[in-house]
Design brief:
The protein contains 12 helices and no strands. The chain has 225 residues and is an all-alpha fold.
Length: 225
């Protein structure tokens, strides 16, 4: 994320001028040192826990940086890369504890992937002006905010529809289902909001709300397990 901020420093002067680098609170040189340290520290930590976890960490570190350098301008492909990075902790945990990637973990990862895809598409509605500077082919910029709102809400509502799956398959208990209902209500609320008012102002609010609902869903995963 630090590397992303370095590469997007000119874009952020338009999209989010209060971020540390465009606001001048942190220099690019300091950010490069900090970002490099974090990357090496993460890879070293994954090496300590085993070769399997190191491989997972290397793959997703590469995906994250490929997004920063090459994939972000490709629009939906960049959204997929970011959402895969969100799934990485699920896969890392599975390899750490089981030595393999469990099908059950993949289902939980799919729910997280879909929810984050919705957020990424909606986030593109906020960043249209700045994305034009870098030539980012986001759905909102190429096809318009209304279509982006429909597609983003579609991803989110698909996650909601599939959210009972872990309980139906006997993976997680009824406690999960009860807690995830709160997240689902929030997801539906935000999806309806952006569909009714597909503006960058509303999209900015909705992208923050979605983080809250995703956090509740994660708590539901943990407690349900």
């Amino acid at each position: 994320m630090v590397i992303n901020d370095i590469i997007d420093k000119e874009v952020d002067k338009i999209n989010d001028p209060l971020r540390p680098i465009p606001s001048g609170r942190i220099s690019v040189k300091a950010a490069i040192i900090y970002g490099g340290f974090l990357g090496l520290a993460g890879l070293f930590a994954s090496c300590i826990t085993g070769i399997g976890t190191l491989i997972v960490a290397i793959i997703f570190y590469a995906i994250a940086n490929a997004y920063n350098v090459w994939l972000k301008p490709l629009g939906i492909i960049g959204n997929v890369a970011v959402s895969l990075a969100v799934v990485a902790p699920f896969l890392y945990g599975s390899v750490l504890m089981l030595g393999t990637i469990s099908m059950k973990v993949l289902i939980l990862g799919l729910l997280a992937f879909l929810a984050n895809m919705g957020r990424e598409v909606i986030k593109g509605m906020v960043d249209i002006e700045g994305d034009a500077l870098r030539g980012v082919a986001s759905i909102a910029r190429i096809y318009g905010s209304r279509k982006a709102a429909v597609i983003g809400a579609g991803f989110i509502l698909t996650a909601v529809i599939l959210s009972p799956l872990p309980t139906c398959l006997g993976m997680l208990g009824w406690t999960y289902l009860l807690l995830v209902c709160f997240a689902d209500i929030g997801f539906v609320y935000s999806a309806i909001k952006i569909l009714l008012d597909p503006t960058h102002v509303k999209a900015r609010k909705v992208k923050r709300e979605l983080l809250a609902w995703m956090s509740i869903a994660l708590i539901a995963f943990i407690i349900g397990a």
